Amino acid sequence: MKLKSKLVALSLVTLLLPWSGWKLLQEMERYLREAQETSLLASARLVASALPLDFQTRLSFAPDAYVPMRGLRHPPSLDGYDDDWPEAGQGMEFRTGDGTVSVSLLAGRHAERLYLLFAVRLEMAPAPSGRLAHGAADQLTLLIRNPRGLLRYTISPGAPGPLQLRSETGEAGQGEGFWLDTPRGFRVELSLPGGGVDSDIAFQVAPAATGQTCWNAPVAARQDAPGLACRAGTSEDIAADWPARAAWANLMPEWRRLSSWLAGFADASSRVWLVDRDGWVLADSDSARMPDGRAPAPQTTWLQRWLYRLVAGSRTDLQDEWPADPMRLTGHAVEAALNGREATSWSQELDTAVVRNSAGVPVVIDGRVLAAIVVQNSSEGLLLVTNRALGRLLFTTLALAIGLAGALWYFASRLSRRVRRLSGAVSGAMEDRVEPESLPLRSDRDELGELARNNEKLLRAVADYSQYLQTLAGKLSHELQTPLAITRSSLDNLSNQDLDADSRRFLERAREGVDRQTGIVRAMSEASRLEAAIEAAEWERVDLSGLVSRSVAGYQTLHAGRRVSLEAPEEAMPLQCAPDLLAQALDKLVGNALSLTGPDDEVSVSLRRADAGYELAVRNTGSRLPDDFQDRLFDSLVSVRARRGEEPHLGLGLYIVRLVVAAHHGEVTARNLPDGAGVEFLIRLPAGV
Amino acid sequence: MARHIAIVEDEASIRHNYEDALRRYGYQVSGFADRDSALAALKRRLPDLVIIDVGLGDEVEGGFDLCRELRGLSRSLPIIFLTARDSDLDVISGLRLGADDYLTKDISIQHLVARVVALFRRVEALSGGTRDEQLLERGPLKFSVERMEVSWKDTAVPLTVTEFWILHSLIRHPGHVRTRAQLMDDASVLVDDQTITSHIKRIRRKFVAVDPSFDQLDTVYGAGYRWKPAGSNGGAHGAA
Fold first, then answer.
1. I want to staple B235 with a disulfide (CB 3.0 to 4.6 A). Which of B95, B207, B216, B230 is the partner?
2. How far apart are CA A537 and CA A662, in angstroms?
3. Against a cut of 0.90, is the pTM above it?
4. Angle at Cα A377 formed by Cα A375 and Cα A379, nearest 5°?
């Protein structure tokens, strides 16, 4: 793993910062929620216990069957659709026992008029058209009873559309309506006089498709929904005894005094309801408020909502938009309260960030749960506070983490670049391409600078040492020459004495040894002599091509038995050089190749123009360089010969080649040719010297 | 009367060995270990030939100084340098010091004696009567083996004994390439290729000093050297 990657991985640890902030936020959110739940429950409890006595009485004596009637802010248009009713879809449902016929009834009043919307829905396969009696049509019969009398309307239009109504009982009861056929039934929207004050209603529907007539049944026992009783036959068939058997349902207006009283417990962000045993709203603190008394829901961005759901999502249900004026409350808190338990619940609207916290407390009168107080807090305040804190915290820590990671990355790449530069320069210096004095970072004050300075010292020491080693041979040879001369001259003198055969034999052996020592000493000093020769060399501009071809011609003459070939272009290759030295280097390479191979192997010399100079290659077949040796090949006193010849060989030949080539600012390399084809020595000479 | 040879050599063993050898060959020999004693003795009586080691004791180049002083005493005194260092050769060979020849210390005694004999012969030839003179002529080159004298276009070229024999080897067969090994054999020197190269260079320089247009000594790269047959030099005499 590179230094940089390590440091970058380390910088990832800084991401723990936003993570821990996140955790803290969640904790804070939970704490705030619990506090709010507690306070909501407390206020709900307070409202429930403080409920005025007359409302308690009223609850106790509430009619068994009633239809909540709400004060409407605008009159609904008579078109059969419920979407202009504030409580759309929340009508009181009447249903038969088997559920085949259901009637949903909405009631409201506005400007002394009573508005009713019947939605009849059949959950059965339509009857075959053949069985449908000719002229049979859907019919709705409605009775309204109030202290001023009884109104009866029978509605059975020939076709859907607007209706004009007149009470069959003769009382003033002019009204209008609208009949709308729907795929599974019909809807009738009515506007009647009288405003429905202190009224009871009863109705009868006779959907033609069923061949039955149904009416709202008396409530025998408390059920989920008020019942609908049916009997086969048309409306006329059962009309005789119907009104008597009709179960009157009270049109129950909102308890406005209670609403006002409840409003005293609500504030801008909270709302209090009193709901009956079915969850129908009896009083609503908001209805006593001005229509625009509530602040619009704050607009939040998707990012904020997403972040909030990330923090609190697991404890909040998503919910469709809350109706502005619910007729009936549902949800966990309400249901629990109606079952006698206190509870709270949370919900969040999908499109806004409004989170509602509801607390339900049962209202117990004479040991029975008759109603429930529901307090709801639209916790935009809390949400916004956390959102802003969340955003700020997240942004700050993320920016910090990114900044820190960036800084670490920059530091790491700079460090790694410096280390790479130093290491490149050191390895360059080891290959003599870079002077130890020009190492980078030497003037830096940190540990790397110290490393660079120490490296410089080390490289100098190594350079001094190799310089010492290189000159050692020359110095040693000088020192050895004097004792050698003593031995040699003594032996020479001795050989002139009268010696017996044995002594003469020993003398010859001693002389042979001295000769070999002399050879060694000469070889040792050859390198230093050559360096002197290179300095004294005569430089001139010659044709390299001619020089090489004359030399190869010379080898061919000298080594008549060997194959020495030349491959060189005819063109002139002018080069400013020391021809003596170059020829000598070529001598060494060719001689080396010839001496290492057998009589059948071939030595080829090739010369060609290269990029900015010339390439002179000497190849031979039949030998191979040891793999671990190639970089030391051109050092002094290194011999790669497998077998030692008679002549002491100290491997100076290739060293001389290197010195000569270096004097020409060129380079020499050696390599094994692929497929064991032999060895190639390649000299590159820049032409611009 | 035996010829008198002085040997100035700080290494006693070498000095004694050389003294013994030369005496055996009939020379009268006196040895000196340092410059001062040598100079003092030689001032009183000049020998016929002096062999000087370049390095004398602590004086790394004491031999050179001694040579200069002796040359001040006599211009014709034959002087041979003995040297262990190759770098000295250039100093000596320029003959700025007036040495007549030089030998490396790894030379055998036989070679040493041969050089001494050759030098005496040249001195004799210069001073005395000419006997059956063997004269080689190669164009403008006149080469007297007996007198060990070389002249180019009638101007004497001052060669050392080594250089003389190398040149002799080359001009015996003009146009033929002589390898370095052959030249070494002919000149009775046991040195390496590099030294032969510098000898050739010095010979060339000496000729060029006499005649800047000299171009007879040819390098055959990879093989050796040859004396270019006359003709290209515009010589009127032609090869002999």
1. B230
2. 14
3. no
4. 165
